[in-house]
Amino acid sequence: MNDCIQVATLCIQVLALIGLIWYVIETSKIRQASERQIAISQDQVEGMSKPCLTLWGGLRDAADAILQMHGAVGNIVAAADQGSYVVQNIGNGVALNVRYHFTRPNQGERELRYLPHLAPDARATLVETLGGYNAEHEATFDYESISGRHYRTAIHLNHRVITAFNFEEIRR
């Protein structure tokens, strides 16, 4: 009789252990699904408030675009404000801690410049003049969103014509 009670107690303990293991596994799955859902929600919120910087521009003269003057392929020309480039935030969120530089081929990076912030749909005149960059060059902007995500915009230009635009999130 004593042995039967001990065997029954052992069986109950083994079943309880199996139940506990099953509970831990299922709880772990729920936690992982919850973490994935939180990450997706954060991405959705970021998407609604993501900044995106570009150079302010206008349409290029149609004849110049068709003839590809200066070897530049594109129909948007960087516009100027009193002879200087203008950055524009076309995104939905504030761009914070904007660091930028302009480079020419076969020349090292120029000095980094800084803007503290740029609101959505806002523009800021840069200290870089159009006359300093007549041939091929690139403008690179590194900035962050209000949530702390980091972004980079690289704009390739040829005689002020925007020939390529690259936007990416930088994982740190």
Largest sheet geometry? 5 strands, antiparallel
Helix residue percentage: 25-40%
H/E element sequence:
HEEHEEEEEEEEE
Uncertain runs are: none
Distance between the amino and carboxyl termini: 66 Å
Strand order of the largest sheet: 7-6-9-10-11
SS field, number of helical segments: 2
Shape: rod-shaped
Strand content: 35-45%
- Return the CATH topology of the largest domain: Immunoglobulin-like
Gyration radius from CA atoms, angstroms = 28 Å
Number of domains: 2
In round numbers, the mean pLDDT is 86
CATH class of the largest domain: Mainly Beta
At CATH's second level, what is the architecture of the largest domain?
Sandwich
Structural class, judged by helices and strands? alpha+beta
Beta strand count: 11
